Amino acid sequence: MKTILIILDGVSEDKIPEINNKTPLEYACTDTIDKIISKGTHYKTYFYPPYTQPDSLICILSMLGVDEASIPKNRAYLEALSAGINVSDDEVVLRCNLISCKNNKLESFNGMRLLKHEKEEASLNIKNSDEIKFYHISDYRNLIVVKKELCPAELGFPPHEYVGKDIDYILKDIKEIKVLNKFVEENKFEIIGRTYMFYPWGVSEISKLPAFKSIHNKSALCVCNADIVKGIAKAMKIDLAYLKNSTGDTNTDLYEKSKAVIEGIKDYDTVIAHINGTDEISHRKDLRGKIEFIEKIDREFIKEIYDNIENIKYDIRIIMVSDHQTSTITGRHEKGLVDVIACNVQR
Question: What Cα–Cα distance (Å) separates residue 198 from each residue in 99, 124, 136?
């Protein structure tokens, strides 16, 4: 039996009084997901060690069968791997969000109110030094590479978890490191009373992951656009589908992704599809937008796959899962159970 694993990043969360004490997934109109549940199973579990804060790195690697001891602490190196950035043994990689601040508070982790081309332009105008290598990845996401000796193993706070907090508190560790503090201060800019800055966090070293085939003895294809998932795929020697129009947000081309899944399952034992927009919109605390995007996923992605795999000559197991909870109330990753929905489509 072949497997289609669909990871709806952060789709799960606790029940919300505003929508009749249901979760967004329960509240949304999802005819195909409901059909899959009726023919299969729907249960809840979690994919992170209880003593950790859940994130995509830990949860996705856990569901792919990677032993806890082999899971890296931070993800920036895998994002560098995804982008083809070379990292030496004496270097570390940091994520570097373009954030916005207002009234000395962290307002957004994603360059709020800037258009995509404005974020790219800001990254092109970076004042840099010989001690820092800066790379623009996509949208508000950037990476910097520095020598290990310049950077402690622990640095910075996940900005998506600290929206609304005092910016001086968030920057306190950065200010202790001369080269990073200079980088942040020299690259601040203001637009209509709002301050933007490039914020380094999440120190990551070179890490090795086991190949997917060595764990499961199966071939695999990954259909994704999120940098971390592409990095995981490369590190685990999972082939990547070519996508022209897909993104890591709600404006992704779901039809393109569904077509890649349908074609991929003909040639691979396993197809892993990842949709990141459910997580991004949750971080933005957009409950209605999340419900609408779930409904769009059901129409343009799940339905397309379900209706078309009936013509494929293999038995196929479809598994839909949330890697972790992302709350539209807090905008944060929260501890708790996540949805697993599965059924077999047999010839």
Answer: 6, 12, 11
Helix then strand then coil, in percent of the chain rounded to 5, is 35, 25, 40
In whole angstroms, what is the distance from residue 198 CA to residue 127 CA? 11
Q: How far apart are CA 3 and CA 268, in angstroms?
A: 9
Q: Beta-carbon neighbour count of residue 3 at 10 Å?
A: 19
Please name the residue that has the structure tokens 């329960």.
26
- Enter the pTM of the model: 0.92
pLDDT, one tens digit per residue, over 306-333 is: 999 978 889 999 999 999 999 999 999 9
Task: Tell me the mean pLDDT in the region 25-41.
Answer: 97
- Number of C-beta neighbours around residue 51 at 10 A: 5
Distance from the Cα of residue 292 to its chain's centroid: 19
Q: Which residue do the tokens 């990141």 mark?
A: 276
